[in-house]
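Review form for a predicted model. The reviewer records the input and the model, then writes brief findings.
Reviewer: anonymous (R2)
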Amino acid sequence: MAKTGNVMAKIPYIPLRGQTFFPETTVGFDIGRDKSLAAVDHAMNGDKYIVVSTQKDANINAPTMDDCYLTGVLIKVIQVVKKHEEFVRALVSVKCKVRISNIYDEGDMMTCEYTFVEDYDNDPNDLTLQANVRVLKQMFLKYLEMTGQGEATGQEMIDNINDPATLCNILANEIDVSYDVKQTLLEIDSVNIRISHLIDILGKENKILSIARRINNRVLKNMNRSQQEYYLREQLQVIKEELGEDEDFDDEAIQWKQKLDELKLPEKIDAKVRKEIDKFTKMNAMSPDANVSRTYIETILDLPWQKANKTNNNIKKAEKILNEDHYGLEKVKERILENLAVQQLTKSNKGPIICLVGPPGVGKTSIARSIARATNREFVRMSLGGVRDEAEIRGHRRTYIGAIPGRVINNIIEADSNNPLFLFDEVDKIGSDFRGDPASALLEVLDPEQNDTFTDHYLEIPFDLSDVMFITTANTTSTIPSPLLDRMEVIEISSYTEEEKVRIAEGYLIPKKMKENGIKKSQMTFSEAAIRNIIEYYTREAGVRNLEREIGNACRKAAKNIVSGKSKINNVTARNLDKYIGKKIFIEEIGSLEPEVGVTTGLAWTTVGGVTMNIETVKMQGTGKLILTGQMGDVMKESAQTALGYIKSISSKYKISNDIFKDYDIQIHIPEGATPKDGPSAGITMCSALFSLLTGRKADKTVAMTGEITLRGNILRIGGLKEKSLAAYRQGIRRIIIPKENMPDLEDIPVSVRRKMEFIPVESFEDVIPIVIN
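Model under review:
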């Protein structure tokens, strides 16, 4: 007997028309009835699971429990794509067989209660089962040969399946027989009996196919061409009348061919599509294969082969739009205007792939949207964060049931233009696993020398992406694969200064948030001091995302005051700011900058911008070990060992006893231990902290520092100086020690910040000691 479990709780239910699914397969099907669409929506908002079973009569539009088979399957929705105004196409993974105990009509959708069903008689050591499996494989290969589907593909597929139950399910799903025959198979719980039944079905189908082939060969030999055409047309008409089909099926094919004539596609593509249309006209309109073929043809015809927006190459107009939407970001704007100038001179839309790299909230995604508006292109965005499946980029091959094109082609269809601006967001967070490497699939998309013949696995025909303007965004380039990074031109967007944030808030964020909350200019104002306090005490960040959020909070509080009659005019100032957005999140830690022994102030660069950090050191009785804590990476650990090695080499000069290195353990700790840290630029900071600890002299924590140290005490160049300097400035630090080799980088730091800070260039650690150590 088949094993069954307890009755499961209610779950969305969909009755299938003319289709039966089998476990351990991936299928696609169209959903058009309102209750079925509601069931899909409910599932997509939850765990994505649905129970489906086949209707006994496909013509019933509103089936009840009596109209449905009670043996069905549990499916999980993988993807839903809107293919038409009246229906969607769902790609699902069929998990297991179930028995339905009750079906309920909830009004807007149908639900059911069910129990899981397990197969039995599936012992791989059973000789009868082994014999049946062998015969089944032979019969299926014969079936493929008779239907002209290719034995090689079938042989490869069945060779990779070892479980008899899985083999039976997949082959049953592949054969073209009526749904009631498949339902009979699904309801058999014994694997051995089910395989025997499938062998009988395949045997019958193979005989019918063999007889039909002989009859056709014999009849066609005795006919001339005109007789053949007359006979075939009459035969087709009778078949359609028997099936109850009308002329819509042929009309659809005629409309496709008319559209194909208008598109004037390349010869090879045109021939391939016409061949597919001809094959479609010979299919049963109710068969799953007809739906697959229809989706494929419509996808190709929906592609914007000749549709393109007239791009704007007017530099002055583009510059005006970019400046309207964004304050600052001069490097990005300049690069886009240069690109437009080149396109105007060359009369070509081809250009480099731009990668915008910077901390969160600095406007990478929004500037891409503005570039689309400035160049008069459609805007398409695809987030790559967490994408691990190559098929997301290049689509599924049509050999898989339920295959759909990749998101690149889908987005081009939705844009209805072959030259949109296509934004790949968060390209640094792309992943890979057993389903393939999406980053490798992107190589063809983002290579100007290759993307004019981009071939989606589903379409299997080339589509020209060379006119598409591709832009990618990332927080860091360190996690982007080298071959992919090599195809892109990196433009770094650094943190905003306080002055830039004030201008952005006054010119963009405050008007935007007031409009969103229905507040008029006469009803609310923000003083400049209030904006600066929000930046300093509520939103210490590289970008302006939290600043926008806090301004929104103030606007909502003002809206409440206006509606309740408490205050018709709301003037937000530094004094009353806490009444609008609450108490300060960050406070000035003046006490923490007092000189201490063994503690120094360092600077670091992260994916969210620059940060300041204290490096703490202590010594304790021990055996001379160096203990490193605070989630340091390998490079930072080596920097700590290098710093200690250098201190040992100068110990006699500064009267540091050698016994300390033998009788004491030394620990270096960087607070916020949950945050990983790495890089060589903290070398000078750790060396200063160790020197202070071992000499017993206090270190000046109002001086921040950054630089890599060598065993000879030389200070080497580092990166991210602008972000680190802005982080020190936000913390109230006005003196920074930097490597002398970094002096040219000071030009990147805004003048407003540079004037208020003292940058002290050093070449060796000997230069640092009199500045930091008291």
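Findings: The longest strand covers residues 88-105.
Further findings: The radius of gyration is 35 Å.
Recommendation: see findings above.
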